[in-house]
Amino acid sequence: MAEDGIQQVFAHLHPALHWSGDRLVSPDLPAADPDLNGAGITRAVGTLWEARDATGNGLARLIGRSRAQLLAYTTSPTTTTQLAARTGLSLGTVSQHLTVLREAGLVTSHRYRHEVNYTTSDLGIALLERS
Protein backbone atom coordinates (compact mmCIF):
# COMPACT_ATOMS: atom_id res chain seq x y z
CA MET A 1 0.00 0.00 0.00
CA ALA A 2 2.83 2.38 0.80
CA GLU A 3 4.31 1.89 -2.66
CA ASP A 4 1.26 1.53 -4.88
CA GLY A 5 -1.58 3.22 -2.98
CA ILE A 6 -4.96 2.09 -1.74
CA GLN A 7 -6.39 1.72 -5.26
CA GLN A 8 -3.92 -1.08 -6.02
CA VAL A 9 -4.80 -2.82 -2.77
CA PHE A 10 -8.52 -2.83 -3.60
CA ALA A 11 -7.89 -3.59 -7.28
CA HIS A 12 -6.66 -7.07 -6.36
CA LEU A 13 -9.37 -8.05 -3.85
CA HIS A 14 -11.90 -9.51 -6.26
CA PRO A 15 -12.27 -9.54 -10.06
CA ALA A 16 -15.76 -8.00 -9.88
CA LEU A 17 -14.38 -4.84 -8.23
CA HIS A 18 -13.19 -1.86 -10.25
CA TRP A 19 -12.55 1.83 -9.73
CA SER A 20 -14.83 4.46 -11.22
CA GLY A 21 -13.40 7.88 -10.45
CA ASP A 22 -12.99 7.93 -6.68
CA ARG A 23 -15.37 5.02 -6.00
CA LEU A 24 -14.88 1.29 -5.63
CA VAL A 25 -17.66 -0.33 -7.67
CA SER A 26 -19.09 -3.85 -7.85
CA PRO A 27 -22.22 -5.04 -9.68
CA ASP A 28 -23.20 -6.95 -6.52
CA LEU A 29 -23.15 -3.94 -4.18
CA PRO A 30 -26.18 -1.71 -3.51
CA ALA A 31 -26.46 1.42 -5.65
CA ALA A 32 -24.27 4.35 -4.62
CA ASP A 33 -25.86 7.20 -2.71
CA PRO A 34 -29.16 5.49 -1.87
CA ASP A 35 -31.89 7.72 -0.47
CA LEU A 36 -32.16 6.29 3.03
CA ASN A 37 -34.45 8.90 4.58
CA GLY A 38 -32.81 8.13 7.91
CA ALA A 39 -33.80 4.44 7.74
CA GLY A 40 -30.32 2.93 7.30
CA ILE A 41 -29.19 0.25 4.88
CA THR A 42 -31.06 -3.05 4.93
CA ARG A 43 -28.79 -5.08 2.62
CA ALA A 44 -25.89 -7.07 4.00
CA VAL A 45 -22.69 -7.37 2.00
CA GLY A 46 -20.58 -9.23 4.56
CA THR A 47 -20.75 -12.46 2.56
CA LEU A 48 -20.47 -10.78 -0.83
CA TRP A 49 -17.45 -12.81 -1.96
CA GLU A 50 -18.23 -16.00 -0.13
CA ALA A 51 -17.59 -18.89 -2.49
CA ARG A 52 -20.71 -21.00 -2.69
CA ASP A 53 -21.06 -22.70 -6.03
CA ALA A 54 -23.90 -25.14 -5.58
CA THR A 55 -24.03 -26.19 -9.23
CA GLY A 56 -22.91 -29.63 -10.31
CA ASN A 57 -23.08 -31.31 -6.89
CA GLY A 58 -25.52 -33.42 -4.90
CA LEU A 59 -27.64 -30.44 -3.91
CA ALA A 60 -28.03 -29.43 -7.55
CA ARG A 61 -29.06 -32.98 -8.41
CA LEU A 62 -31.56 -32.95 -5.54
CA ILE A 63 -33.28 -29.60 -6.08
CA GLY A 64 -32.11 -28.68 -9.60
CA ARG A 65 -29.20 -26.58 -10.83
CA SER A 66 -31.15 -23.31 -11.01
CA ARG A 67 -32.65 -23.63 -7.54
CA ALA A 68 -29.28 -24.61 -6.06
CA GLN A 69 -27.69 -21.59 -7.73
CA LEU A 70 -30.43 -19.26 -6.45
CA LEU A 71 -30.06 -20.70 -2.96
CA ALA A 72 -26.33 -20.00 -3.06
CA TYR A 73 -26.90 -16.43 -4.28
CA THR A 74 -29.27 -15.64 -1.40
CA THR A 75 -26.63 -15.97 1.32
CA SER A 76 -26.83 -12.17 1.28
CA PRO A 77 -30.25 -10.52 1.02
CA THR A 78 -31.19 -10.05 -2.63
CA THR A 79 -34.22 -9.30 -4.77
CA THR A 80 -35.83 -11.23 -7.59
CA THR A 81 -34.60 -8.62 -10.07
CA GLN A 82 -31.02 -8.89 -8.82
CA LEU A 83 -31.16 -12.69 -8.99
CA ALA A 84 -32.54 -12.61 -12.54
CA ALA A 85 -29.74 -10.29 -13.63
CA ARG A 86 -27.10 -12.41 -11.94
CA THR A 87 -28.32 -15.78 -13.26
CA GLY A 88 -29.76 -14.87 -16.65
CA LEU A 89 -33.09 -16.47 -15.71
CA SER A 90 -36.34 -14.62 -16.35
CA LEU A 91 -38.07 -12.78 -13.49
CA GLY A 92 -40.96 -15.25 -13.63
CA THR A 93 -38.66 -18.26 -13.44
CA VAL A 94 -36.71 -16.79 -10.52
CA SER A 95 -39.96 -15.97 -8.74
CA GLN A 96 -41.28 -19.53 -9.20
CA HIS A 97 -38.04 -21.07 -7.93
CA LEU A 98 -37.95 -18.72 -4.92
CA THR A 99 -41.53 -19.66 -4.07
CA VAL A 100 -40.57 -23.34 -3.99
CA LEU A 101 -37.43 -22.62 -1.94
CA ARG A 102 -39.44 -20.50 0.51
CA GLU A 103 -42.17 -23.14 0.88
CA ALA A 104 -39.46 -25.73 1.60
CA GLY A 105 -38.03 -23.48 4.33
CA LEU A 106 -34.73 -22.91 2.50
CA VAL A 107 -35.11 -19.13 2.07
CA THR A 108 -37.01 -16.42 3.88
CA SER A 109 -38.50 -13.26 2.40
CA HIS A 110 -38.76 -9.82 3.94
CA ARG A 111 -40.55 -6.86 2.40
CA TYR A 112 -38.96 -3.44 2.73
CA ARG A 113 -41.08 -0.74 1.09
CA HIS A 114 -41.49 -1.87 -2.55
CA GLU A 115 -38.77 -4.56 -2.48
CA VAL A 116 -38.82 -8.13 -1.27
CA ASN A 117 -35.42 -9.42 -0.16
CA TYR A 118 -34.75 -13.16 -0.08
CA THR A 119 -32.21 -14.64 2.33
CA THR A 120 -31.02 -18.20 2.86
CA SER A 121 -32.54 -19.69 6.03
CA ASP A 122 -30.55 -21.66 8.58
CA LEU A 123 -31.75 -24.86 6.90
CA GLY A 124 -30.65 -23.56 3.50
CA ILE A 125 -27.22 -22.62 4.85
CA ALA A 126 -26.87 -26.07 6.38
CA LEU A 127 -27.64 -27.66 3.00
CA LEU A 128 -25.12 -25.42 1.24
CA GLU A 129 -22.44 -26.22 3.78
CA ARG A 130 -23.06 -29.97 3.43
CA SER A 131 -22.82 -29.90 -0.36
From TrEMBL:
The keyword DNA-binding applies. Gene3D superfamilies: Winged helix-like DNA-binding domain superfamily/Winged helix DNA-binding domain (1.10.10.10). The keyword Transcription applies. It comes from the Bacteria. Residues 36-131 form the HTH arsR-type domain. Keywords: DNA-binding, Transcription, Transcription regulation. GO terms for molecular function: DNA binding; DNA-binding transcription factor activity. This is HTH arsR-type domain-containing protein. It comes from Planotetraspora phitsanulokensis.
